[in-house]
Amino acid sequence: MIIPDRSPNKVTIEDLLRLKRAERPSPEFWTRFEQDLRAKQLAAIVEKRPWWHALHLPQAARAISRFQVPVGTAAILVLSFVVVNQYRPVATPTERIAPEVSGPVMQVAVKSVETPKTNAFAPVVVAARSAETLALASAPKMVTSSASARTVMVVNSTALSSQPSELTAMIPWGVAQAEESPASARLLDTGVQAESISNLSVTSLLGNAGTDGDQIQVSRPQLAEAKSVVAQASSPREVRRAKVLAGLVLADNAESSDYARAIHGRDIAANDLSEAQLYDSVHRLGVGGDRFTLKF
Amino acid sequence: MNAVSKALTKILVASPERQQEADSDWMIVQRVQAGDVASFDQLILKYRERVYAMIYNMTSNREDAADLTQDSFIKAFQSINRFQGQSSFFTWLYRIAVNSSLTHIRKNKLRTFFSFDKVHEDVGVSEVINRLTDKKDVERDVFVHELQEKLNEALQKLSIPHRTVVTLFEIDGLSHEEIAEVMTCSVGTVRSRLHYAKQLLQAELQSYVRP
Predict the structure, then answer these.
(1) Fewest 10 Å CB contacts: which of A102, A179, A280, B91?
(2) Quick check: A256 pLDDT over 60?
(3) Helix or strand or coil: residue A46?
C-alpha cells in the first residue's frame, strides 16, 4: 500500500473547513441562550395552537400516500359512474313519473279535443335520417287550422298508440309511459284521447318549441315516416339524432313567429353544427384503447 | 417490513455509537411523551451546540443562528408526541433545524449580514493556520479573521442544498446516510452534491489552498 506523500505545507479544502468547526460561541452566550429558550418554551406552552395543528395533516397525508393507487382508481371509478349517470339520456324507465304526469296529460288532451279535427291537410314532410329526405323536408306545408293562427299538427293516433315504445324513448318527461298507467289506459279507450296524447308526445319530441297553448299538427304520412325514423333509432345516440331531425322538420314547417327558436336551431344546424359536432356534444365520455376521455 | 424495522435498519447503517445514542435518546423521548417535560432539557443540553453550529454555518450569522436554534427546539418540543422513533431523534431534530434554516434563508435572501463567533484554536486548527501564515500575534489574528470572512463568503455563494451538504458533512460530521435522511434525498445525491460543492469551494478559496 502506497501512503500518499503529504507535504508539510499542504492545505486542502477540508483543512480550511476545519476552521469553521472551530468557530464556537463563548459560555456566556449559552447562558443567555438558555434564558431565551426558557422564555420561548413557556410562551409556546401558554400559546393556543391553531386548530389545524390537531389534525396531524402530515401524518394523514403520509397514510393516504401509501394507498395512492387504490384511492386514485376508486376516485376515477366513482367519478366515471357519476358522470355516466349524469349524462345518460332520460329514456325508458319512467314508471315512477307516470302518476305525476297523468294529470297534465289529461288536461292537454281536453285541450286538444277543442281543436278542429281535420284530415284534409296536405302531406307534410317528415324527419328522416338521410340527407335526401332532409332535402325533401325543405318543402314543408304547414296549415293553420284556426283564426287565432294556432298551428296544429294532427297525429295519426292509432299508429302511435299501437307502438309507443320507440317514441317513448324520445320523450323527455315520460309522457308515453303514462299510457301504461291506469289513468292513461282509460284515455286510450277513445281515439280522440289517444290522439291528444300523441299530440303531446310530438310536442315533447320537438323540444317544447311552441308557446303555451299552441298545438302542432302532424299529417299521417309525416307521422308514419317519423315513426319509421324512430323505429330505426336503436341507441340513445340514434334517438337524440331523430329528435334533432324532427325538430328541423318542424322548423321548416313553422309559420308562426313563436317558433323563432326552432328556426334558429335549424339555421345553426344547417350552417354550423355538423353531425360530428353534434355527436361530440352528445358524447362527453369516451373509452378507446388505453385512454379514457372526459369532455367538459 | 414494518416502520420500526425500517427505522432500525437505518440506525444500524450508522455507526454503533450513533445507534447507542439513538437508543438513549428514544428512552428520553418516551419519558417526555409520558409527561416528564423536564427530561427534554437533557436533549437540549446534548444537542444545542451541534444544532447551533449547523445553523450558524448555514446562515453565517450568530444572532439568527441562536434564534433559529431556539425555535427548532421549541418545534421539536411541541411535536414530540408525533415522534414515533422511526428515525433517530438526532436526525429528526436536525431535519427540523435544517428546514427552519432553509425557510429563514429563503425569506431573507436579499438581506444577509455576517456576524462571526470566535475561532477557538485547538491543535489541529493551529496547525492549519501555521501552514497558511507565519505571522504572529495581532497580525495572525487579522489573518484568521480575514480567512474566516472568505470562508463564509465562499459558503454563502453555494446554493442552499450544496451548502447544507457541506455543512452537515464537513463541519457537523454527519455520514452520507444521515445527511440523506435529514435532507430526504438519496445517498448518491448527497455524494454528488458534496463533490460539486467542494469543487466550487476550491475555486473560491484558491488563494488559500496549497496542493
Answers:
(1) A280
(2) no
(3) helix
Nearest to B128 by CA among B35, B53, B210: B210
Q: Which residues pair with B210 in a beta bridge?
A: A11
Q: pLDDT confidence of A239, banded at 50, 70, 90? A: confident
Cα angle: A277, vertex A283, A286; to 5 degrees: 115
For residue A195, pLDDT beyond 80: no
Give the sign of the dihedral formed by CA B119, CA B124, CA B126, CA B129: negative
Q: What structural domains does chain B harbor?
A: 1-116 (1.10.1740.10)
Please check whether residue A102 is in contact with residue A183, taking contact to mean a CB–CB distance below 8 angstroms: yes
* pLDDT at position A251 over 50: yes
Selection from B105, B98, B109 nearest residue B69 by Cα: B98
**Separation CA A230–CA A175 (nearest Å):** 16
The number of beta carbons lying within 10 Å of the beta carbon of residue B50 is: 18
Contact in structure between A90 and A101 (CB atoms under 8 Å): no
Q: Is the CB of A41 less than 8 angstroms away from the CB of B74?
A: yes
Q: What is the pTM of this model?
A: 0.50
**Which residues of chain B carry a pLDDT beneath 50?**
1-12
A-proximal residues of B, 97-116, CB under 8 Å = 116
Give the closest of B116, B132, B202 to A23, CB-based: B116
The domain segmentation of chain A, as residue ranges, is 58-88, 98-281
- In b/e form, how buried is each residue of A102-139, taking b as 16+ CB within 10 angstroms? beebbebbeebeebeeeeebeebbbbbeeeebbeebee
Closest partner residue to A9 among B78, B131, B166, by Cβ?
A: B131
Rounded to the nearest 10 degrees, the angle between the axes of helix B62-78 and helix B89-107 is: 130
**In 3-state terms, what secondary structure has residue A163?**
coil
Q: Judge whether B140 and B150 are in contact, CB under 8 Å.
A: no
What ipTM was estimated for this complex?
Answer: 0.79
Under a CB-based contact definition with an 8 Å cutoff, are residues B105 and B167 in contact?
no
